[in-house]
Design goal:
The structure is a homotetramer.
Chain A: E1 5-15, H1 18-28, E2 32-36, E3 40-44, E4 54-58, E5 63-71, H2 74-87, E6 92-94, E7 105-109, E8 115-119, E9 148-156, H3 159-170, E10 173-179, E11 189-193, E12 201-205, E13 210-217, H4 221-233, E14 238-244, E15 250-256, E16 262-268, E17 279-282, H5 286-290
Parallel strand pairs in A: 1-4, 5-8, 9-12, 10-17, 13-16
Antiparallel strand pairs in A: 1-5, 2-3, 3-4, 6-7, 7-8, 9-13, 10-11, 11-12, 14-15, 15-16
Helix pairs in contact in A: 2-3
Chain lengths: 308, 308, 308, 308
């Protein structure tokens, strides 16, 4: 047996203008376009070695088409498939190549309706650094120069069902949750992880199949300032930031891609382990959990209003 | 002859609750209270050596009572007094001790009605570091731990008159200005300096005698994050930030003291010299000049609405 | 089945002067002493929730007495025990309480002679932050304020044997290795991980049972400057730094505790996954791998000379 | 009257290989070459608006040929000339164009033998940013991307004579000095300023006409890490760093240009004013004053050994 689900491997997101999306993700975010078809563009960050972590799919509305989590071994995949079926999920096998450059895997829907895929292999491309005696960073990064994707946050009509599904069927662990009262264990929203980051996926209340945002990792706080400057230069609409999250302790800018998908550049946070006690946020303190600095601002209420 | 006006020496600000103000400036901002009377509290930052840089004066409304700029020599003071009179200002001499711990000086009003004082001496207290073999920072700083005040921004019904006054009578230099059109030389707003920072004082349109904010210096960008965290912990109302200024290139959080005086924690910016060509901002790009990240946000319009 | 080995749980280190060691780890490093006996002191960082991550043991010479890695579940522990025995290790069970505040577990020696323990439970103490609506950092941190331990680096006469042992018996993964030539797969030294950090343990050539250093995590680069300042104020002997590692891309200061144990404050580095291709460093470029800035300096040769 | 000497305007430095020097200052340091002759290259940083701040002069040995300080007005220049002559200096007038792109001025030697020039005008080139609605930083910076020069440090057989000269004839102010004993006022070394930085020029004991280093400003601490990485990539020999200075509180890397001139990248430090009390360092604590982190290291003794 291996390590199970290792990470958020890819996000397939709908975009309404493929060329505008390409310009944004390549020229502003600094990703590398590793492939392109008439209806899709494949992108990776400079510190990612698999073929892609984001797929832009031409569509008539923005939003999340599906997400893929990379699993360590085929034994893990088989075990997870078994557990999904036991849990009552409707699981489909997909074959190698059905997803461009991706090996075989399984597909299913979360209780919230979101399509999730598990897979073990993706064509190897390599980081933008050599594997032999590498310098600490590559030359010629463009714009924000985002090294990798980090997590995504989805909306669900009944978050608890999806949280339970992820934890029980797929061994996700919970780092933080929002509760009505301090002694409640019913998650109104939850942050879940498989890696040692505070979240690989989070679920908040909202419509089923909804995407609140997916996030890029940045290596440190100063990189947020650079990102904000780059966004301003390129007239990228900033939603909120620079802000501190109470939840995860991270630091952030939220912004929108040209199709209206909310994205985040995220840094900071603690190291999370499966035995870490869950941090709770009560609803009355939630504004501080979301935007620690500006928790008194009325515009925070609007933050959860826009999803795709 | 000496160096003329060296810096913004003190800000005398009205506060409606002296004890609440003390708690804020001492326990949140980390200033040292060097003296106290029934109606006033005197404060200095850890990296300041004069007796005070802020005076909190008990009053029934917030706002700026007056500001003091420190002059290098008494010859300079006499020369500046002469120039003020030549310029048509109504100048009053004040004697040593009339301002607590401050030597003799001159007092006058800017065309905008603000009271300004020039002085040469203030009682020496010393930094929070020893003068002999000092470590780079003092132990035991509280809260934000602001090292010093940096600048203030006032409002004027006719900014140009006050800008002219400061430049012509007092040898202030202009770093940046807002103009209607690129070829205009009429300042709608202006940033002026005597030190090598991009602004010791700035003037924007608004009511006469108005205070938009006075600012504390922080040594680097990360200190803004710490300040934001401290503000949140103490429920200090944040107005805007963390943001980048286009004007001055600085980085900022605006917030309010308990009486409603807007304050700023500011870092960054370039080194300014008297021969530096003035940077111009046209009105159509002004939002970016004020808040570079969030220049598309509607709430920027409200930013100049609140003054004291 | 759970997640196997989760992290480096504790380092038991010999110190020649217990009180001097306490002062250093508490007053300089900012750890909390959670317990004390006549011959040992137990310490944790502010962001750790288990009872201790460092044990200082009174001894007549410095060095590493043993290390403990925390395992997710008792099923994992049993499975790892089985694998260790299959691999030919001599494994001893220890009962709850045999290690102060630690549950039952297994003990064995690495091929390099170092004593390693695996355990599932340690008494819970909690972070220095509340679990309910926590602020992002605790008040009143002392000195360096190290949040947690990060990794350790041991020496072995035949590193490859210990590397194989850790990878094959305990499922450690390799992030980076030193090789003679680019096409060699024989590790002269290796960096191994179980968490998503570039190393939980590393092995370099040297005497068996030797300790090169154990490291504290710091949250960002600026914290290294603060650490350096604190070390200087307390006359802590700095070995090297501030430096950049080529290997792991991290940033560092090496220094010695009062008994002569080398410690490190470490930040940065990438996220590591089990499917990450191994980075290789050839011996001719190793100086850059160790100290990227000062790779031309002769004093780098001396760096591996001192171990305990 | 104007503001007197405003800043270190230019450093004319000897280089033994003009093309190697050009590559270093342009491709590693990121300066712009604004002009070139057979025997000289003129360079400016991206945040400088005058034609050049560094002149590389072909020579058979490294070192400082001369330095130029920019004066605010011609009245100031005349006044300074008069004071120099009163002080006993041998002053020569040079005409416009005698120094390429520089207006008329005066030339003299410091008591230490170094050639200094004062001038009022240099051809305007402009920053790498527009004067109208500028972004906070320019695109396409190369290597270190140094924005400007900051200061220089020279050696003198009798430092006090040169310190007195600079302070009495040219109105430099002292921020810090090295003394034998706490109550001594005889400067063994001194840091002097005309701007509000802790030093525009410093003088330490050594041979007359000697150059210890000249320094580039970097905007913040993280930029030192980037500089160190760039130096390593380009095999620039680092002398010392990353280090903290006790003196000035700045942070630093020292390194050598291809001809063996020591350079520094410097950031941090406090704001200095003419009325600031002088900080004293006693000889027994000087190592901490120079390199605060590694003050116990023997290699600090060697630091003052190499000058050009």
């Amino acid at each position: 047996m291996g390590e199970g689900i290792m990470r958020l491997g890819y996000v397939v997101t709908r975009v309404t203008d493929l060329e505008a999306a390409r310009k944004h993700y390549v020229e502003v975010m600094g990703m590398e376009a590793t492939d392109r078809t008439d209806s899709a563009i494949y992108l990776k960050g400079w510190d990612e070695y698999d073929h892609h972590s984001i797929v832009l799919k031409k569509a008539d509305r923005p939003g999340l088409e599906k997400m893929g989590f990379k699993v360590h071994t085929y034994d893990d995949l088989a075990e997870l498939e078994k557990r999904l079926i036991q849990y009552g999920a409707s699981v489909t096998r997909f074959s190698k190549g059905e997803n461009h450059k991706v090996g075989e895997g399984v597909r299913f829907r979360l209780p919230s309706g979101h399509v999730m895929e598990l897979y073990v292999e993706m064509e190897y491309v390599g980081k933008a650094l050599p594997q032999l005696n590498p310098p600490p960073w590559p030359e010629g990064l463009i714009g924000v120069g985002a090294p990798r994707i980090d997590h995504l946050l989805i909306t669900a009509e009944r978050p608890q069902e999806t949280v339970d599904f992820l934890m029980k069927a797929l061994n996700f662990y919970m780092s933080e949750m929002v509760v009505e009262k301090p002694d409640s264990d019913v998650p109104i929203a939850a942050w879940l992880f498989r890696s040692n980051t505070p979240h690989d996926i989070a679920i908040i209340p909202g419509k089923d199949e909804g995407l609140h945002h997916f996030a890029f990792w940045l290596d440190e706080f100063n990189d947020l300032r650079k990102a904000g400057d780059v966004f301003s230069k390129h007239d990228v609409p900033i939603d909120v930031g620079i802000e501190r999250h109470g939840i995860t302790r991270g630091q952030t800018i939220y912004y929108f891609d040209p199709s209206g998908n909310r994205n985040e550049v995220f840094t900071g946070g603690y190291i999370a382990y499966p035995d870490m006690p869950v941090v709770k946020w009560t609803v009355d303190q939630l504004a501080r959990g979301i935007f620690y600095f500006n928790h008194r601002q009325e515009w925070i209420e609007g933050f959860t209003g826009v999803t795709t």
